[in-house]
Amino acid sequence: MFRNRKIRKQRSRFYRSIIGSNNLCFDIGANIGTRTALFLELGARVIAVEPNPACVARLDKNYRLQKNVTIIDGAVSDVSGTAQLLGSQKFSEMSTISTAFRDTIIAAGFASVEDYKPVSLTVKTLTLEKLIEQYGRPDF
Fold it and tell me: Which of 19, 73, 97, 104 is the most exposed place for a label (fewest CB within 10 A)?
């Protein structure tokens, strides 16, 4: 999943220092599952939460047969309910339900206003507390 082997190796070394076998990891904003893959290689159980339908489809394709992965179609928020997904057409990893995050990304020059085309997509939201209640307290 990582295109750059050096980055993959560095991230693997980093996560290996904090994630052990059978640890529970929440991959919030899992995108296409790059970190999910690393967590699985370390023997972790993964709860992958992702609101972008295209990314959820990719996660499902890549991990549906993995017994240690649960894919949640939704976004983590401070309240359970629904929210508008602010989709980045150019960068799926920068799609968000947070206008503050989107504005920070644009202000920092990582994306432009044009990259955030209006997307009329309502996504389910759930709280971190709800995830913990359902799956347990994560190790990471």
Answer: 104
Token pair, residue 136, equals 């347990």
Q: Where are the beta strands (DSSP E) in the chain?
A: 24-28, 45-50, 69-73, 75-76, 81-84, 122-126
Q: Which residue do the tokens 């947070």 mark? A: 98
Q: Domain extents for the chain? A: 1-75
Nearest to 46 by CA among 66, 72, 69, 30: 69
The Cα–Cα gap between 15 and 85 comes to: 29
- Give per-residue pLDDT as tens, 23-59: 999 999 999 999 999 999 999 999 999 998 889 999 9
Query: Which residues lie below 8 Å from residue 101, measured CB to CB, with a gap of 6+?
Result: none
Domain 1-75 has CATH 3.40.50.150: yes
